[in-house]
Amino acid sequence: MKILAIETSCDETAIAILKAEGDEKAAQFTVLGNALLSQIDIHREYGGVFPALAKREHAKNLVPILEAALEEAELLHEDTQAIPEETRAKISEILARESGLAEAFFEFVGECEPPPIDAIAVTSGPGLEPALWVGINFAKALALLWEKPLVAVNHMEGHIFTALAAEKRLQDAEGTPLHIKDVSMPVLALLISGGHTELVVMKKWLEYELVGQTRDDAVGEAFDKVARMLSLPYPGGPEISRLAESLRSSLGGFTAKYSLPRPMLNDATCDFSFSGLKTAVLYLLKKNPAMSEHEKQHLAHEFENAVTEVLWEKTSRALEKTRAKTLTLGGGVSANKHIRRTFTEKIKNEYPDVTLRIPSAALTTDNAIMIALAGFYRTLRGDFPGLDALSANGNRTLAP
Ligand code: KG4
Ligand code: ZN
């Protein structure tokens, strides 16, 4: 079957079209089209994602992104379409709050043959609600017009399935098909992004239990805040990583200049806390207001070490507790080189029976391929909420 997937939960407008074959136990996916527009440059001057602006940008970008995805999938065929008056009225109502989107939508679909897709998947949460709504309303309009079933995907489930599709070797998604097969349950997922830090276990397909979570800041948020304290641009994760990596690669052995806490490292739960770490960085910077580039490298290095140690310690505790056979990393922060290296080493040395799956770097940050992967599993279950029931939920959770 062919799935068209839409992602607008944050600052990426993305649409992908995948051919999906097989079943839960052995699925194969071919990316036919994948179009993505990042708004990072627009949000950078605000030092973070500005929801009203994200919503406006999604509304502006969805039609061109759809066109690009269909074109790449060779599913774009010009043909004048007569849209029944009743359908047009319903769609106009659905898109009424998304400025300019209805006009662009009708102009495009009025000239385009309905593509042979079987389902439309869209992110329904978690994320920024105004941003989520644009994607959902766009998906509803397409589903209504093309008479296709609509699937609501949890964004975090998308991150898990992207990791499951990763081979042990970190492959590139371009061209080669993605497989989800030979997955040994339970699967423990460490989800680390700008809004989330949680450990979730999947014992059966699509059934989740929360094992641990942050009690305050998400790890990506901590990276972003520390970067801002160092006057580095948004998003801060890659900037901190760049600084830390330059020190890791330039010196064999060196003495750490700073020492930061490892919050909740010895606490018995699998929960996290990162706000204390952020405050410790703030105090350190108060004492050293004019840090040199080299000092910043030391700080970033120590911060990355502290975060990674805590993430690993809690994950290792959760592996023991859940007796998981597969570990996945997902979410934007899993692009971090030091975290990837550390987890790969530790699993190899300490849990050789556990399979670690980390998505290729290109698929760690938000995209629509991830929504299509999870969307296929939901489609197999016939999990279609229906147009009226589908709504955005900024705080949508995986575990009940
Ligand atoms: O999953 P994602 O793209 O969006 C959310 O759903 O939040 O994650 C974005 C987060 C940001 O906080 C960003 O700073 C962080 O991922 N990030 C990184 C790296 N690349 C992105 N954090 C650490 N190291 C990186 N290389
Ligand atoms: Zn994400």
* CATH fold assignment of the largest domain: Nucleotidyltransferase, domain 5
| First-to-last CA distance | 29 Å
What structural class do you assign from the helix and strand content?
alpha/beta
Mean pLDDT metric: 94
Quaternary: single chain
Lateral strand order in the biggest sheet: 5-4-1-2-3-6
CATH class of the largest domain equals Alpha Beta
The distinct ligands, each listed once, are: 5'-O-[(R)-(carboxyoxy)(hydroxy)phosphoryl]adenosine, zinc ion
Could you explain how this protein is built, in words?
By secondary structure, the protein is α/β, with parallel strands linked by helices. The chain folds into 2 domains: 2-165 and 363-380, ATPase, nucleotide binding domain (Nucleotidyltransferase, domain 5); 184-358, Nucleotidyltransferase, domain 5. The protein is 43% helix and 19% strand. Strands 5-4-1-2-3-6 form a 6-stranded mixed sheet, sandwiched between helices. Strand 8 (197-204) and strand 9 (207-213) form a beta hairpin. Helix 6 packs across helix 13. The radius of gyration is 22 Å and the shape is globular. It binds 5'-O-[(R)-(carboxyoxy)(hydroxy)phosphoryl]adenosine and zinc ion.
Quickly describe the structure.
The chain has 400 residues and is of the alpha/beta class. The chain is built from 13 helices and eleven strands.
List keywords for this structure.
400 residues; alpha/beta; Nucleotidyltransferase, domain 5; 2 domains; five-stranded mixed beta sheet; 13 helices; 11 strands; 43% helix; globular; binds 5'-O-[(R)-(carboxyoxy)(hydroxy)phosphoryl]adenosine; binds zinc ion
